[in-house]
Amino acid sequence: MSIDLAEQLKHADGKDCRCCAYAYNECACGCDWTPSEVYELRAALAAEQARAERLAGALRPFADLAELFDDDRRGGNMPSTGLIMSWPRIGKEYDMTVEHLRAAVAALALRPSGDGVGHD
User: Fold this and answer.
1) Residue 19 belongs to some domain of the structure
2) Are 28 and 21 in contact (CB under 8 A)?
3) Residue 42, domain member (yes or no)
């Protein structure tokens, strides 16, 4: 269960102290002396982790395709550079290159293992 950031900031930094303490080590009432920056950084981290999960999900099919091209049992022989596939669309052509696939693999390799994003 996540507590709203605004609610946490209302009570952070000892704002609810009823014993007139100047710091957490003097406080007898047990209020929250966590610095507001900690709550802000935790919220920013959670947002970036969610963004990283979405990016990993978007990149995973490209990394899987790169593994397929590199798998000698299935034909392998991914070229060292250049165009792999091309899709003509209305007024524009979309190209997938070896560099796109390698970038996806490299981006997923930066993620720590055991993060729950379907790594083999």
Assistant:
1) no
2) yes
3) no
Query: Could you give phi then psi for residue 19, rounded to 5 degrees?
Result: -110, 10
Q: How many domains does the chain have?
A: 1
The answer as to whether 89 is a domain residue is yes
Q: Identify whether 61 is part of a domain.
A: yes
Is the entire prediction scored with pTM above 0.90?
A: no
26-80 residue pLDDT tens = 999 989 999 999 999 999 999 999 988 888 888 888 777 777 766 655 556 666 6
